[in-house]
Write a structure and sequence with these properties.
Structural class of chain B: mainly alpha
Distance between the termini of chain A: 39 Å
Number of domains of chain B: 2
Strand content of chain A: 15-25%
Radius of gyration of chain A: 19 Å
CATH topology of the largest domain in chain B: MetI-like fold
CATH topology of one domain in chain A: Rossmann fold
CATH architecture of the largest domain in chain B: Orthogonal Bundle
Distance between the termini of chain B: 41 Å
Oligomer: heterodimer
Structural class of chain A: alpha/beta
Shape of chain B: globular
Number of strands of chain A: 10
CATH class of one domain in chain A: Alpha Beta
Strand order of the largest sheet of chain A: 6-7-8-3-9-10
Order of helices and strands of chain B: HHHHHEEHHHHHHH
Bound molecules: adenosine-5'-triphosphate, magnesium ion
CATH class of the largest domain in chain B: Mainly Alpha
Radius of gyration of chain B: 25 Å
CATH superfamily of the largest domain in chain B: MetI-like
Helix content of chain A: 25-40%
Number of helices of chain A: 11
CATH superfamily of one domain in chain A: P-loop containing nucleotide triphosphate hydrolases
Strand content of chain B: under 5%
Helix content of chain B: 55-70%
Order of helices and strands of chain A: HEEEHEEHEHHHHEHEHEEHH
Largest interface: A-B, 29 and 24 residues
């Protein structure tokens, strides 16, 4: 697993590496792809994540659920270090991706984000053409080959269930797309760089049932190769697409279980109340 | 409450709100027409005074003691070169400083300190910049004594003969004007950088872009049109400046154009002469106007009016060019 990370570590193999005592594979479980240990997170002096320790497994879908403002998006953004950009943020604890501590100063954050793609809660098309939006990631990574770019754009748009609607207007401004189309464009854009972890923050919140089920199909398909972490407010969606579900509440993980277990037989009262819609 | 049940309170308020909206529109319209009216009056009175005086020889003649033979050749080329070099100095420095302040520095007391000073500098009278320019560029603090020396600098095929200190040359003038307008350019550029939504930057970073790529491909294309607007306004201001140039010792009467380039044809015939331009003496349109207005012979008032027209046309052409460039940039950003 370490071999995959060679570009990320930038020829400095002394980077902090995850150490484990117990064997983690077996019982049909895939290896651990992402692990957080005692993760606390702060905006200024305001702590929003408390002692989060989670293991997210390779080639699985992990759903994050919980009431608004409980820290789901913040947690998601710690995995690709997008929080670094926000001034005044800090954390304690560790986050590992592929056994490497990603907050280690020797880790190149650009290489990390190449592997860990992200779909934001709000869709943010660039003020460019549809084509240029999807080609942006590969281009800045150095891809200058027109043919290969065209293939990537087509493939990504097809995966995001948008190709048929835009194939005749690829050079129109992305701003002319509808809200739901823009959201799928952002999914296509996130796929275009070929990540192996995909963080999705409510990717279906502005979509009609048809597109939503296409996105869910996509998630199923991607699961074969990718590790997916998805935030959703839709309990049915969480139940449908995810293998494991974490219930966040006021910055803490109350329960992190196999999805079936969490929905049918939750350990905690608060989880039960939330998934049955009694609060939140 | 249903629609056919009238709500008296709501409706009386609504009438008032509609009235407010209309009144505000009228106030804005009056302001617009007031500015346009002032401009029309200015143009009309200047054109009337200048009629019969603005002809081709007015453009191609140097200044003269005889009003009929006086012309703006020296001032026109002087202003042109001054603005050219001012733009060359100001745009990269101004935009660079704005990008650094907005995209690279963290918010903190240093940034606030710089910010406050920038805004203050934008309000310093231009004559103060003249004094600064005189000390720093024209005389170079007297470090080199009063005797002028020449430093030779070879650049590929060109050999530049740079006088030290710069003396009252186009170079000193352009550097002085650059200092004068830099605060405005920086503050305006910062504003347009701030207007680029930070979510765009985040989306770019999330696609594994470096900071430079994000600035180059997302931030600058969106901010550039706004930045150029700031540059246009500042440069237009600089064209009309007289005081700082008089302070640094710009002459009112010059019998040669910078680099001896008297027409575009001269420029094409001998492009190398551009290298001499920065180190030439100069006068500018506003200085010539200022000078003519002072003269007792009333015919010179007509000469002054004609040169004001030339200045206005010059400004118009310059703005047209920049707006064209700006629109070209805007095409790449497709909101
Ligand atoms: N940039 C920021 N600066 C300061 N506080 C922030 C920032 N972003 C989020 N917060 C705070 O952190 C807490 C967690 O926010 P977060 O966006 O992670 O919630 P969430 O679980 O994603 O909510 P939602 O379901 O509404 O998207 C909230 O209290 C929020 O106000
Ligand atoms: Mg959120």
């Amino acid at each position: 697993m370490l071999k995959k990370l060679e570009p990320m570590i930038n020829q400095t193999p002394q980077v902090t590496v995850r150490e484990t005592s117990e064997p983690e594979v077996g019982n049909g479980l895939t290896p651990v792809k992402i692990e957080t240990r005692q993760l606390d997170f702060f905006y200024g002096s305001n702590q929003v994540l408390f002692d989060i320790s989670m293991q997210i497994r390779e080639r699985s879908v992990t759903a994050l659920i919980g009431p608004s403002g409980c820290g789901k998006s913040t947690f998601l953004r710690t995995i690709n270090r997008m929080n670094d950009i926000v001034e005044g943020t800090s954390h304690t604890g560790q986050v590992f991706v592929d056994d490497v501590e990603i907050y280690d100063p020797r880790v190149d954050v650009v290489a990390l984000r190449k592997r860990v793609g992200m779909v934001f809660q709000k869709s943010i098309p660039f003020p460019k053409s549809i084509f240029d939006n999807v080609a942006y990631g590969p281009r800045i990574a150095g891809n200058r080959n027109k043919k290969s770019l065209r293939e990537i754009v087509e493939h990504s748009l097809k995966q995001a269930a948008l190709w048929d609607e835009v194939k005749d207007r690829l050079h129109d401004s992305a701003m002319t797309l509808s809200g739901g189309q823009q959201q799928r464009l952002c999914i296509a854009r996130a796929l275009s760089t070929g990540p192996d972890v995909l963080l999705m923050d409510e990717p279906a919140s502005a979509l009609d049932p048809g597109s939503t089920s296409k996105i869910e199909d996509l998630i199923f398909e991607l699961k074969e190769k990718y590790t997916i972490v998805i935030v959703t407010h839709n309990m049915q969606q969480a139940a449908r697409v995810s293998d494991e579900t974490a219930f966040f509440f006021e910055g803490q993980v109350i329960e992190f279980e196999k999805t079936k277990q969490l929905f049918t037989n939750p350990r905690e009262k608060r989880t039960e109340d939330y998934v049955t819609g009694r609060f939140g | 409450m249903s629609l056919n049940q009238p709500d008296a309170e709501f409706e009386s308020h609504l009438a008032f709100r509609n009235f407010l909206g209309k009144a505000f529109g009228i106030v804005c319209m009056v302001s617009t027409w007031f500015s346009i009216g002032a401009l029309v009056v200015l143009l009309a009175s200047v054109s009337w005074q200048a009629s019969g005086w603005l002809n081709w020889s007015f453009i191609t003649n140097y200044d003269s003691r005889h009003p009929e033979q006086a012309g703006v050749l020296a001032g026109l080329w002087g202003s042109l070169w001054l603005i050219f070099f001012t733009t060359i100095f100001t745009v990269p420095v101004g935009i660079g400083a704005a990008v650094y302040l907005e995209e690279y520095t963290q918010n903190g007391w240093i940034k606030r300190f710089i910010q406050v000073n920038l805004s203050n500098l934008a309000g310093v009278p231009s004559i103060v910049y003249g004094i600064l320019g005189l000390t720093v560029f024209v005389r170079m603090f007297g470090l080199f004594g009063t005797k002028e020396r020449v430093i030779e600098l070879s650049l590929f095929v060109l050999t530049l003969e740079i006088p030290v200190p710069f003396g009252t040359t186009v170079l000193s003038g352009a550097l002085t004007l650059s200092l004068l307008i830099l605060p405005v350019v920086i503050v305006a550029s910062q504003e347009s950088l701030r207007a680029v939504p930070s979510s765009i930057r985040h989306a770019s970073y999330a696609l594994a872009a470096t900071r430079w790529q994000t600035i180059r491909h997302q931030v600058l294309p969106s901010a550039l049109p706004g930045m150029l607007t700031g540059v246009i306004l500042a440069i237009s201001r600089a064209i009309g400046e007289t005081a700082p140039l008089v302070i640094i010792g710009a002459l009112t009467y010059v019998a040669a154009t910078p680099g001896d380039i008297e027409s575009p044809a001269d420029l094409l015939r001998n492009p190398g002469s551009v290298a001499e331009v920065p180190f030439s003496e100069f006068t500018t349109l506003p200085i010539q106007i200022f000078n003519w207005v002072k003269l007792p012979n009333s015919d010179f008032q007509h000469v002054a009016a004609a040169s004001i027209l030339v200045l206005l046309i010059f400004l118009l052409v310059l703005n047209g060019v920049v707006i064209y460039v700006r629109n070209r940039f805007q095409k790449n950003v497709r909101w």
